[in-house]
């Protein structure tokens, strides 16, 4: 059957796919039909009436946006009747429009302005007083509404309904009094609220942070990649006079499809914050003092040289961060191996991601999604939209998570295993699959899960006896199943089980644990037991190829992981530490151990954009680093897609790009090999040679998308029988933690658009536990864990499982790691009410 249709538009034959609207067909043919309400990602609405055209054999003018093409259709887009309608509609829209273009943020990027100039009258026939409506209404934390400028296209309302399925905006009243608003007393606080500013064809909706900062024609823009979460949304950075002023979504069907969450949109306000480090610092007489780069690097060379002379290459260590670009992480790996040490890692209380097997379009089109220990709404918001889209298409969602999630209303099944028993549940699914399909698992896995029947799994996890069977059958029964795991997966054992489950069922893995670029920095070899490309240390061919590329001998000795590093430092075995982009004092799972270890170190160098607690208290040298927006570099997102981040503005003060700092450090340490790189693109070209899966990745520097998915072994050890996690602490409530989208981490607390959206530090507790402990909603409570206590605001909620307490990460002035949360351990905390509210 022919799926194309040929019609005639303005005398021109046009062939388009069946189902195309006349408006889309005209645009494909290069014929402009004006429209204010139509948008490619929203359903046709026919509201603005600007797109009316003549269609032969059809009475009256017809909306091009809502008219589907037919074979032989004849359309006229520029007849006198069509022109008259356009002028009339534009005149009516302008009759009560304030015409305040000189002070409107949309001036220069306003469809109404363009259309009036192109199609409208030069003067108005209306002399009456204009109708007046609300001005500068704060719809929510990110958006300002001017009701007088609004043309009631309802793009914002339809976005909330069709894309978000969250009806926060609506048209209120009728006729001339119609206006866009929220429900009385409600705030437009969607995590995606900023998208309505981009959707608005006029200046009715404006960005609260960008408002009155610059005119559109003054801005310089560059395509870039968001580096604030593992999705890596494609975006456009816009700035003026050396300041990054605005971020907007960019079309990328393979990633974010043009949408941005509000963190990505407003989270870059830290670039020119006054707390930024602009000069290197050296500790003298207990105080950090600004010095030149030459002096700082010389001091670093002295400190590391002394440590290597005293304890050998294994006496130094490198700690990176998932916030680094691939280029910086790759050079850190190369530096550590060139110095002869394998003490290199980036994992602070988490695990490196498993192989990425699914793409983001796979998630959108999935028939079955197993969402395991992840909350996309808080951890990777764009994924929330794609999960909703999959369910809307008929897909089934199964959730395994200790808390009730906002996505729960879309779920076919919800399972809330006891904290620490998640690995047992996965093993139970594997056991159920093996029972139903004997021989489906390798022998070593059959041995590891033997004896885990439905009764035992239910007893250990607290889930329904049928949970394992139901989940296994759902995954096996679909050819388009995705296992999506999130920040709650913090240990290699659970990851290995998930990988085995994906292999046994044919499902594809997609994970975002570990941080924004955790997949990329792990691919770069920032691990103690892996080389670049996740190659085992014993792979002689890879080692030989790297030695040829680096023109230097390569240390293939296994080093200390981040967890093993701190005891070794406390014992004096590791004397010098180079920290790049990390803050182990607040991010490490055992703060007491970390602080004792850093205090024992003879030399600590920190490479950072802000003065973190680690830098402020323990660094001997601090090197000021660039932030996203100030440096070029690549990021690998959760699906293995590589994108290129561009430098729109120069680094503040004397700060340098992270990759450049590492290269400078390598040169002052006389590390073997060549470290003369002209730019980040040259480092990326070397990465393409070093890692086969990244061959050809240079295409991303010109705006391309590169798929770096590949398979690799998670561990070299055979699987062990899963068991519930160890228990620590003397309290009666199990601690659960996790990120929230708007928090107070070192970057967010310096971004004005984020600060006001971070909730007050709280602890969520189940109503029955709250009643038993005498705790009321909103009251101050103390949560005491392994290494100290936090004073928090109680949030009594059934979203928190009974017997647990949830404390978000990075909300309190004191990090949640004071309570002792760590992989593979269930921490039992003591919770009690306080007499007075915290300040």
Order of strands across the main sheet: 15-14-27-26-25-16-17
Estimated radius of gyration: 29 Å
List low-confidence stretches: none
Q: What is CATH's topology name of the domain at 296-350 and 520-633 and 651-707? A: Rossmann fold
**Share of residues in strands:** 15-25%
Structural class estimated from helices and strands: alpha/beta
Largest sheet: 7 strands, mixed
Second-tier CATH architecture of the domain at 296-350 and 520-633 and 651-707: 3-Layer(aba) Sandwich
The proportion of residues forming helix, as a percent range, comes to 25-40%
Question: According to CATH, what is the class of the domain at 296-350 and 520-633 and 651-707?
Answer: Alpha Beta
Instruction: Report the total helices.
Output: 26
Tell me, what's the shape? globular
Question: What's the β-strand tally?
Answer: 37
Cα-to-Cα separation, first versus last residue: 71 Å
- For the residues shown, what is the average pLDDT? 94
Structure description:
With 839 residues, this protein is of the alpha/beta class. Among the domains are: 4-78, Ubiquitin-like (UB roll); 296-350 and 520-633 and 651-707, Rossmann fold (3-Layer(aba) Sandwich); 360-511, Dimethylsulfoxide Reductase, domain 2, CATH 3.40.228; 726-833, Barwin-like endoglucanases, CATH 2.40.40. It is 28% helix and 19% strand. It has a 7-stranded mixed β-sheet, with helices on both faces. A 6-stranded mixed barrel has the order 32-36-33-35-34-37. Strands 2-1-5-3-4 form a 5-stranded mixed β-sheet, sandwiched between helices. Helix 12 (422-436) packs antiparallel against helix 14 and helix 12 (422-436) packs across helix 15. It is globular and about 90 Å long.
């Amino acid at each position: 059957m022919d799926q194309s249709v040929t019609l005639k538009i303005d005398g021109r034959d046009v062939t388009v796919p069946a189902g195309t609207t006349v408006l889309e067909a005209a645009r494909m043919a290069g014929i402009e039909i004006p429209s204010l309400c139509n948008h490619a990602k929203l359903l046709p609405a026919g509201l603005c009436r600007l797109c009316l055209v003549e269609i032969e054999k059809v009475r009256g003018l017809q909306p091009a946006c809502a008219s589907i093409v037919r074979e032989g259709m004849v359309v006229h887009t520029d007849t006198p009747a069509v022109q008259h309608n356009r002028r009339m509609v534009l005149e009516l829209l302008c009759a009560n429009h304030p015409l305040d273009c000189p002070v409107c943020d949309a001036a220069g990027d306003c469809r109404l302005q363009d259309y009036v100039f192109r199609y409208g009258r030069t003067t108005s026939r209306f002399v009456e007083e204009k109708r007046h409506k609300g001005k500068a209404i704060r719809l929510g934390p990110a958006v300002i509404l001017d009701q007088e400028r609004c043309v009631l296209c309802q793009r914002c309302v339809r976005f909330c309904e069709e894309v978000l399925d969250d009806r926060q905006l609506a048209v209120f009243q009728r006729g001339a009094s119609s206006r866009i608003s929220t429900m009385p007393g409600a705030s437009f606080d969607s995590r995606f609220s900023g998208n309505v500013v981009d959707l608005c064809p006029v200046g009715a909706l404006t960005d609260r942070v960008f408002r009155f900062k610059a005119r559109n024609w003054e801005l310089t823009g560059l395509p870039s990649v968001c580096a604030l979460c593992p999705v890596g949304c494609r975006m456009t950075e816009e700035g003026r006079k050396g300041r990054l002023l605005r971020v907007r979504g960019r079309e990328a069907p393979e990633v974010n499809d043009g949408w941005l969450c509000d963190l990505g949109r407003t989270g870059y306000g830290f670039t020119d914050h006054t707390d930024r480090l602009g000069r290197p610092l050296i500790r003298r007489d207990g105080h950090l003092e600004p010095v030149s780069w030459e002096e700082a690097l010389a001091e670093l060379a002295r400190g590391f040289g002394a440590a290597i002379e005293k304890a050998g290459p294994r006496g130094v260590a490198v700690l990176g961060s998932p916030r680094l670009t691939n280029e910086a992480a790759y050079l850190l790996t190369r530096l550590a191996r060139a110095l002869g040490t394998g003490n290199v890692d980036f994992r602070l209380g988490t695990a490196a991601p498993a192989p990425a097997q699914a793409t983001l379009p796979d998630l959108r089109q999935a028939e079955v999604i197993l969402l395991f220990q992840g909350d996309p709404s808080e951890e990777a918001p764009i994924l929330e939209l794609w999960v909703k889209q999959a369910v809307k298409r008929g897909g089934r969602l199964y959730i395994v998570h200790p808390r009730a999630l906002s996505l729960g209303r879309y779920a076919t099944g919800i399972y809330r295993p006891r904290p620490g028993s998640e690995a047992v549940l996965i093993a139970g699914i594997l056991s159920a699959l093996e029972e139903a399909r004997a021989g489906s698992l390798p022998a070593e896995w059959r041995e590891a899960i033997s004896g885990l029947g439905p009764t035992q799994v239910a007893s250990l996890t607290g889930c329904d006896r049928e949970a394992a069977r139901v989940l296994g059958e759902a995954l096996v029964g679909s050819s388009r199943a995705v296992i999506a795991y999130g920040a709650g997966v913090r240990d290699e054992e659970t990851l290995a089980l998930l990988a085995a489950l994906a292999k046994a069922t044919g499902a594809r893995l997609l994970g975002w644990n570990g941080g924004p670029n955790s997949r990329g920095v792990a691919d770069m070899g920032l691990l103690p037991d892996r080389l670049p490309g996740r190659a085992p240390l014993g792979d002689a061919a890879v080692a030989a190829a790297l030695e040829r590329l680096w023109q230097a001998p390569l240390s293939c000795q296994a080093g200390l992981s981040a967890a093993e590093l701190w005891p070794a430092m406390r014992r004096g075995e590791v004397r010098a530490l180079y920290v790049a982009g990390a803050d182990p004092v607040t991010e490490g799972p055992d703060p007491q151990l970390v602080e004792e270890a850093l205090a024992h170190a003879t030399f600590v160098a920190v490479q950072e954009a802000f003065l973190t607690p680690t830098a402020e208290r323990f660094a001997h040298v601090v090197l000021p680093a660039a932030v996203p927006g100030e440096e070029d570099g690549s990021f690998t997102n959760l699906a293995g897609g590589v994108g290129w981040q561009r430098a729109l503005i120069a680094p503040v003060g004397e700060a340098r790009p992270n990759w450049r700092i590492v290269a400078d450090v390598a040169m002052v340490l006389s590390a073997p090999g060549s470290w003369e790189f002209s730019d980040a693109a040259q480092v990326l070209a070397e990465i393409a040679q070093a890692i086969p899966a990244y061959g050809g990745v240079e295409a991303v520097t010109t705006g391309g998308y590169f798929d770096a998915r590949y398979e690799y072994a998670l561990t070299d050890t055979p699987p062990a029988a899963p068991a519930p996690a160890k228990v620590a602490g003397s309290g009666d409530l199990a601690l659960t933690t996790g990120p929230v989208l708007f928090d107070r981490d070192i970057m967010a607390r310096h971004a004005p658009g984020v600060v006001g959206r971070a909730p007050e530090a709280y602890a969520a507790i189940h109503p029955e536990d709250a009643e038993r402990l005498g705790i009321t909603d909103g009251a101050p409570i103390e949560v005491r864990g392994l290494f100290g206590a936090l004073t928090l605001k109680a949030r009594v909620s059934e979203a928190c499982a009974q017997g647990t307490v949830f404390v978000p990460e990075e909300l309190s002035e004191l990090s949640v790691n004071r309570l002792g949360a760590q992989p593979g351990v269930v921490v039992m905390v003591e919770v009690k009410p306080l007499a007075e509210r915290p300040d």
